[in-house]
Each structure stands twice: as C-alpha cells, then as structure tokens.
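Aim 2 progress update. The chain analyzed this quarter is reproduced below.
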Amino acid sequence: MAGNPDGLYIMLISVHGLIRGHDLELGRDADTGGQTKYVVELSRALSTHPDVSRVELLTRQVFDPKVSDDYAKPVESLNEKAEIVRISCGPRRYLRKEVLWPHLDSFIDNVLQHVRKIGRIPDFVHGHYADGGYVATRLAQLLGIPMGFTGHSLGRVKKARLLEKGIKETTIESQYNITQRIEAEEITLGNANMMVTSTNQEVEEQYQLYDNYQPRRMTVIPPGVNLERFHKPRMMDSTSAMIAEIERFLEHPRRPIILALARPDERKNLATLVRAFGENRELRESANLVIVAGNRDDIRHMEKGPRKVLTDLLMLIDRYDLYGLVAYPKHHKPEHVEELYRMAAKSKGVFVNPALTEPFGLTLIEAAACGLPIIATEDGGPRDIVGLCQNGLLIDPLDASALGDKILSALRDRHRWNQWSKRGIKGAHKYFSWASHASKYMSIVTREIGKPRKANHMVSTRSKSRLPIIDRILVCDIDNTLLGDDEALKALLDEIQSSDKKIGLAVATGRRLDSAIKVIKKANIPTPDFLITAVGTEIYYGHGLLEDDAWARHLDYRWHPKELRNAMKGFPGLKLQAATEQRRYKISYNVDPAKAPTVSEIMAHLRKQDLHAKVIYSHQAYLDLLPVRASKGLAIRYLSLKWGLPPERILVAGDSGNDEEMLRGNTLGLVVGNYSPELERLRGRPRLYFANGEYGWGILEGIQHYDFLGAVQIPDEK
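Predicted structure tokens:
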C-alpha cells in the first residue's frame, strides 16, 4: 500500500456483518446495515487526509457458500492508502453478531499476528459497535496506543426497549447475549480516549445510561455523504431500470412519490407508514407510496424477523386495497438508491423515515443531498439533521393519522417544498461532507496521539535472551499448578529438559517477584525465560530479572491507586492484604464471601466515580484491583507480539479465576484437575483442555494432549 511512511496508521475495527468495498448488501440482514456503509466510507475519507499514510478496516473473514467469495479475500484495496483486511474469527461460516463473542479473543490474537506481519504498530485504533469496541480496547491495551469508539447501537438502550415490549429478560439474554454486550460497552467506554457519536441525543439520552458515562470524552461528528453520488436531479441523468421496475406497480406513475428506504425490521416502523397512507383518502388519491425494504427472493425462506415485517406489510396493502398505489420491489442494487431519491425529487415527493428510533439517519442526508425533502421520526438523529438543514418535518412515529396529514401538507405546499429542497442540498454540503468529517476526526486523533511523534517500531530485545530462538513456550501458574506435587514437578521438568525441541518455560503468578523467585528456587525449578508476576502487572526476563519497563509504562494508563483505595473503603467483607502484598499496579484484598459485594457491584461503584480498574476474584477468597491494561492474559499476548511467538506455540496452564483471561483466545489452554470452580464456565472452548491429572501430572497430560513437544496439534474450531 502506498503512502508517506511518516504519516499516521489508523486501524478501524468492525467485526460483524458482510463488508466489502463495492455493491454493499445493505439490508441483507440485521448485521449488514448502516454501520457497514459508514465504516467503508470512513476508511476512504480518512485515507484522503494529508496526515494519514495507512488506513485498515479490519473485519471478520467468512468462507460460506451462502455468501459471496468476496468476504473470504484476506485483503481488498479501497484505494492506494486504504484497504479492508479480513481476519479469521472462530468458525469459517457466516455468523450473526450475537454468537461471535466467544471468538473475539481469537480475533484479537490474529490481529496481533497481522500487526507483526506489517512490521508497524498502528498509531490509533477505533472500534465500532460493542464487539469492535471490545477488540479495540484489548488491542489498545496490548499495543499501548490510544483508541476511539463508536457504539452505533447501545446494549442498555436495546435492552430497555425489548423489556418495554414485554419480552422476558431471560429471553433477551439468551437471544442477544445482552449482559456481555453491555459489559463490553462499559469496558470500552472506560478505556476509550474519544467516543464519536452522530448526534447530541446519543450523548445526552443513551450514553448517560452507562456507569462509564464521561461526556467530556465524547465528540459529535455527523457521518458524511458521498456528494458525487448523491446530488440533485440533472437533465443529463440517464433513465434507470429501477424507474421501470417501480412504475410497473403503479396505475398513476406521474404522481408524487412518498419514498421509504429501510431494511425489513420492526424498529423501522414501515407498517405505520402504510397505515398512514391507507387511512388518508386524499393522500391515496394524490400520491404513490414506494417502499424499498432490502432484497428478497422468497419471503417464506427469510429469517423470522424480516419475514414477519414483510408479511405484515403485504397484509396491510391488501387490507387497504392499495394495489396500483404502492410499489414494493423485490430487488435493488446499491447504485439504485440515489436514483430512487432523484426519481422521488423529480416527482415533487418526500422521503419518509418513520422509525421508532433512529440513532442517526444516513438515508435522510442522502435524500437531502438529492433535493428530496424529508419527514422523519422525532427521535434521535433526525432532530439534528432537520435542525441544521431546515428541510422537512419531524413526526411522532406512533401517530399514523398525524403522519398522513403531515405528508399531505408537505406535498401540497409547492413553495415550501421548493425551499426545503434547496435547503437540503445546501445543508448536506455544508454540514455532512466526508471531508469535513475526516478533518474534525483527525484533529482529535492527532491531539490524542500527541506531538512530537516518534517512529513506532517493535520493541528491541536483549541479545542473550533465549526468547528469540525458542519456537514454543510453556507458561504455568505457580501455586496449585506447577507446585503441589513434588513427584509430578520432577517428572514434568525431566520431560521438558529431555526434549530436543526449542522449548521455553515461563511462569505467570499472582505472587510478587521476590516471593515467586523464593518458591522457584526452593523447588529447584530452572530460572524461567520470563516471569509474569503480581497478577500480570510486572514482567521480568531471565537470569538478570530485567523488568520490562515498556510494560510498566503501559500500565500507567488511568491508574489512580490512592483514589481506588478510598473508593473501596466503604465496602463490607473486604480487608486489605498485608503491605508486602501490595504493588505499584496491584491493590489486593482478602474477601469474606458472605459479606462482600459482588464484582459487578464493585465495578459499577468505581465507574460512577470515573475510576477504572480490572477486578479479579479468585479462589473465592482474594480480590485484586489492577490497571485496565493489566492481566496475565494481556501480558502473555504482549509478549507474544513483542517476541514474535504465535499464540498457537504457547501452552498456558492454570487453576483459578486469576488465570481465566490467559486461558482464552488462540493460546493452547490447559486447566489442571485441581482447578477452582470459577473456571468451570470455560469448559467446552476448543483450545482449552481440562485435564484429569492434578498439578504437574495435569500439565504433562496437557502436553501429551496437544503433542506440545512434537508437531503441536491445534484443535479445530467448528
């Protein structure tokens, strides 16, 4: 990819849906909508900024005969400075976003390998939606870079609306994994340097529902519109095949068009628009209704949600006998969208968005740029758009009668229609261009990165370390994993030392360094190649026990130990451990489970005070507060990236809750037979083996299971 090597490297993360740089399948399903289009166009816009040399849009790679082969291509160029990079994430087939959560850690590990291949660390990473935010947060933590977040749709808001519909909480949880989504959003909000929203309402009414609501870090930057595609009707415009497709439905095709363009989703409220049209005699006699609701072949074979919406629409059309008055084409191409807007504008019609809620409303700006006045829901983004452009009306999406009256009024007043049309075109150019979006975005990114910038290279290493030459490494927790059975430990060490493979040995422990070294020496364990101590807050190398200063600096991010200790004072059942157990980046407590608050209660309490820490509960007796960038799992991934050792060549063995994070992802995980109950929920993950043997015997069993001293067998993900 071309570009100035001294320019910024921006990485965008949008995991779910079907993303490609051409012929976007918008409306194909609930995961391939406005966010898909937004991230592709954002990538292109950022790549045109003079301070940017490289933009990557990372998404999930999909191999599935039900979708195009385009989504399997590892790399797709958008222009000379921007490309889509598709990363493996769990099973190869296409999956809806709600079932991707168990595979996101693998996605992260695969991204790190991609970064290693590129040979340059991004300057900024930006996550989109909750899953992309989770990935971006972990990457920012591992790489030590600033990050941004755009929610697009928020879990707390979705949960509230589903509950209002009378759907049971257990149903919501099972269908949407809503708790995991909300927690990912909370963590992302706590780590993000900037949050980009489309409207002020998002900030004021949606993000404020979160414990980590910090409006000073939020920036409203409306999405842009491709003004080369979306423009007012011109004399030289060619006749579109889509016009003929629409006109075949209509008895009087020269009447003004009421256009609606949305995927078949209940939240888009298209049924209310049909009722508004069907119940207003004057409207039926003076206009046509055109509803473009995604693409379909056979409604019977669609997913339950879209099938119900389209069936209800057809039933309403039949109920009001709207044949000859309503067009509802089965197919359209991306390039037909702007033609539909211009067709409606030529007819002196209007564009209607009756959605129950609209976080932004990109179609409203597209319509405005084509000179088509808009009538839209009073919720969310339309308020900002109509407020800036002064090109239409806001409506109550639940009042069908009032909606019909307002549409009729808009069509009858030709002078006002002409004013709205002109204002919409002017407003779209003034407020909603991609160039202005990219300029504002990059001014914030540059500020967050800081000046002057230094060249961003991989960290150099000591020449005498074994790490550059080993091709695999065993990483063990100490207590109750490596130690606990002297005979098993001796057998394990003999097995490793007799191997002809270049195998390393490391430990990851909750103990402080001096305590870890003491027990290692007492057990006659060779000096580890590296030691991750104090629950992942400190990293030391080899015989010299050289501390990784870069990791220490990395952990300073939003770490305020004094304020955290003060905030924890009021909780019952928690008692600070001895001073010797406290570290610079670890605050440790003994726990009385009968009296202590839950981990979620502690986290909510801290977030409301704008304090950020990981809360690690283990052995049902201990609780540690760590920096948001700290954990044994993150330390292992940091070392994997730094030393170029693939996660698949790292065997991780543990027994308790503070080992959980390092047991997830693409590393080969091993839980010894004497494990704590907190780890039971991980059972069933493809790269996590639960041994029957305890202590060292369990480790030996895991080594044999993975053939770790041989060819290394990596389990398949199905």
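Residues 451-464 have pLDDT under 50 and may be disordered. The chain has 26 helices and 26 strands. These observations will guide the mutagenesis experiments scheduled for the next reporting period.
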